[in-house]
Write a structure and sequence with these properties.
Number of helices of chain A: 0
Structural class of chain B: mainly beta
Order of helices and strands of chain A: EEEEEEEEEEE
Structural class of chain A: mainly beta
Number of strands of chain A: 11
Radius of gyration of chain A: 13 Å
Oligomer: heterodimer
Helix content of chain A: under 10%
Largest sheet of chain B: 6 strands, mixed
Helix content of chain B: under 10%
Shape of chain B: globular
Number of helices of chain B: 0
Strand content of chain B: over 45%
Strand content of chain A: over 45%
């Protein structure tokens, strides 16, 4: 069965621009979560969506936003890009139910964003 | 809040050596504990998990035991291979309420032939 697919894999933007990243979860998975991975801060939770609703949010500024569509695909958007937004952005899906998740996450390969 | 502390790397070993990567956590209640592995250029993959105290997770020769009394979940393997070279992340998800997972900083493992 197909894994988690993230697009694009690599992208380069300049400061002040915005970017949209896409994530297609494993079929049947209704929870999608996003993470920022940098050498300095490690892996940080951005937000989680379940059934088109943002269920949890990490400690990131409002420039970071996301959404989930009825087919569970998700997008995240970063507006007014800053140099510090350069990172690997990982998406993960899980079988989480309405009560939350204690199960494993299935990660995509990530979208590597470079901000110049 | 919740936190996960891993030993800093890189850990450098020769093939067939014994591996231990330490992981301790701070959380209320009984979180679920995980080890993920990230190979170069890839996303994270679940390696093993344990959901309650004294559970032992195992996969591909790796093992970790959920120790509530020491709040630890150390990763071990008896004989590492060059193909085990990767970054290993310890993680937890809370036992109730917020879903938000917490990851350790990751430990890089380098195995030489």
């Amino acid at each position: 069965k197909a894994g988690v697919t993230q697009t694009p894999r690599y992208l380069i933007k300049t400061r002040g621009q915005q970017v949209t990243l896409s994530c297609s979860p494993i079929s049947g998975h209704r929870s999608v979560s996003w993470y920022q991975q940098t050498p300095g801060q490690g892996l940080q939770f951005l937000f989680e969506y379940f059934s088109e609703t943002q269920r949890n949010k990490g400690n990131f500024p409002g420039r970071f936003s996301g959404r989930q569509f009825s087919n569970s695909r998700s997008e995240m958007n970063v507006s007014t890009l800053e140099l510090g937004d350069s990172a690997l952005y990982l998406c993960a899906s899980s079988r989480a139910g309405t009560g939350g998740s204690t199960g494993e996450l299935f990660f995509g390969e990530g979208s590597r964003l470079t901000v110049l | 809040g919740d936190s996960v502390t891993q030993m800093e790397g890189p850990v450098t070993l020769s093939e067939e050596a014994f591996l231990t990567i330490n992981c301790t956590y701070t959380a209320t209640g009984y979180p679920s504990l995980f080890w993920y592995v990230q190979y170069p250029g890839e996303g994270l993959q679940l390696l093993l998990k344990a959901t309650k105290a004294d559970d032992k997770g195992s996969n591909k020769g790796f093992e970790a035991t959920y120790r509530k009394e020491t709040t630890s979940f150390h990763l071990e393997k008896g004989s590492v291979q060059v193909s085990d070279s990767a970054v290993y992340f310890c993680a937890l998800t809370p036992s109730g309420g917020s879903y938000i997972p917490t990851f350790g900083r990751g430990t890089s493992l380098i195995v030489h032939p």
